[in-house]
Design goal:
The protein is α/β, with parallel strands linked by helices and 390 residues long. The chain has two domains: 7-15 and 265-389, Aspartate Aminotransferase, domain 1; 19-260, 3-Layer(aba) Sandwich (Aspartate Aminotransferase, domain 2). Helices cover 41% and strands 12% of the residues. The chain contains twelve helices and twelve strands. A seven-stranded mixed sheet has the order 2-8-7-6-5-3-4, with helices on both faces. It binds pyridoxal-5'-phosphate (PLP). Pyridoxal-5'-phosphate binds next to helix 3.
């Protein structure tokens, strides 16, 4: 699939686009290129049909109603619309106090930065949920915290350590306590079953580029009755919630990517997990002192997050970068030299935090990729260790 001798094991950062999705995106950039808002001709009708179909496909993947889907430029925008749109809504302003939002410290920076900015603007007061070393929430503490909250923000799966959260249980707690649940399902959608309507999720953020779709397109699912103040105005598209000409090629591609996940996830994910387990077993065998981080039971199939004490991860990836794509943390935090907030949040000691590596496997990962990765990584770690001991 990738005409390249380099091996890509960074599927949490982004995935290759499925060739079937590429074909549809190109079709909507060339033959069927109309504007979905053009009501005067069939080019517009074609585009509107494609958007309607995609809305149904996205909703179907996560057990929502097509009417809940608001297309955006990706999960970061969806999260900003959910949080900022909610706390600036007339309903929230009528309470006359900042919205009380509980958030896990392991959320993606899109959630954390948005929450912290709203807190600095005086629109929000934040409560931090307690997390365990596996990355799991302390559900007792969560339930108690909910008594003092309007909103809880809990991701469906973590983008670094792969921990999968018990969203159904979390949704039930939120419903019991009258708390609105906002879920960043960016890494989970298309990998594990999600039931937006059944589990009582209030809003859910999605993106196409983590599930073999194109970059720059995503969605926010919004339950009926939630009032949001738009953050992008002009034209009144999507019931005024998100103005701007719809990205029809991207949306059509996102829809097909969702449909393919609905149809193929049950077969693909166990195969991905088997390869991940082989990678994990081989690294544990070949790399002395390597430990596996996160929750090894409730984990995304394609995730492996490890630490090697006193072996700087930056030195390892520097040796591998032209041959093998793995990551020292999330794509967003690895641009800076600071430790990722996730490894800090699960309280990894410094030597393990600085020696942590994330592998992300996906449906195009082969047995050969895994074998070669094991060889390259174990050799790179051996070289770094011997350079450090000189
Ligand atoms: N949330 C999580 C958990 C992510 O992994 C990412 C991307 O890395 C985002 C949000 C942001 O998604 P997007 O790139 O679509 O803005």
């Amino acid at each position: 699939m990738i005409a390249d001798s380099r091996i890509y094991l960074d599927y949490h950062a982004t995935t290759p686009v499925d060739p079937r999705v590429v074909d549809l995106v190109v079709h909507h950039m060339t033959t069927r290129f109309g504007n979905a808002s053009s009501v005067d001709h069939a080019f517009g009708d074609d585009a509107a049909d494609a958007v309607r179909r995609a809305r149904a496909e996205v909703a179907e993947l996560v057990g929502a109603s097509p009417r809940s889907v608001v297309f955006t430029s990706g999960a970061t925008e969806s999260i900003n619309l959910a949080l900022r749109g909610l706390v600036r809504s007339a309903a929230m302003r009528r309470t006359g106090r900042p919205a009380r939002i509980g958030v896990s410290p392991l959320e993606h920076r899109a959630v954390l930065d948005c929450c912290e900015a709203l807190e600095a603007e005086g629109l929000v007061s934040l409560t931090w949920f307690r997390v365990q070393p596996t990355g799991q929430l302390d559900l007792q503490d969560f339930e108690v915290s909910c008594d003092r909250l309007d909103v809880a923000c809990v991701m469906a799966a973590n983008n670094e350590i792969g921990t999968v959260y018990p969203l159904e249980e979390i949704g039930a707690i939120c419903s019991r306590r009258g708390v609105l649940l906002i879920t960043d399902a960016t890494q989970a959608a298309g990998k594990i079953p999600l039931k937006f309507n059944e589990w009582g999720v209030g809003m859910m953020a999605l993106t196409a580029h983590k599930m073999y779709g194109p970059k720059g397109v995503g969605a926010l699912l919004v339950s009926p009755g939630i009032e949001l103040e738009p953050i992008v105005r002009g034209g009144g598209h999507q019931r005024g919630l998100r103005s701007g000409t719809l990205n029809v090629p991207g949306i059509a591609g996102f829809g097909l990517a969702c449909r393919l996940r609905s149809e193929e996830m049950a077969e693909d994910e166990p195969a991905i997990a088997r390869r991940r387990d082989r990678l994990e077993a081989a690294l544990l065998r070949l790399v002395p002192e390597l430990i596996v981080n996160g929750d090894r039971v409730n984990r995304l199939a394609g995730n492996l997050h490890v630490s090697i004490p006193n072996v700087p991860n930056t030195a390892v990836v520097a040796r591998l970068r032209h041959h093998l794509a793995i990551s020292t943390g999330s794509a967003c935090s690895s641009g800076t030299l600071s430790q990722s907030h996730v490894v800090r949040g699960i309280r990894l000691p410094d030597d393990l935090a600085d020696g942590s590596l994330r592998f992300g496997l996906g449906k195009f990962t082969t047995d050969d990729h895994v074998e070669t990765a094991v060889r390259l990584v174990s050799e790179a770690i051996r070289q770094v260790r011997s350079a450090l001991s000189c």
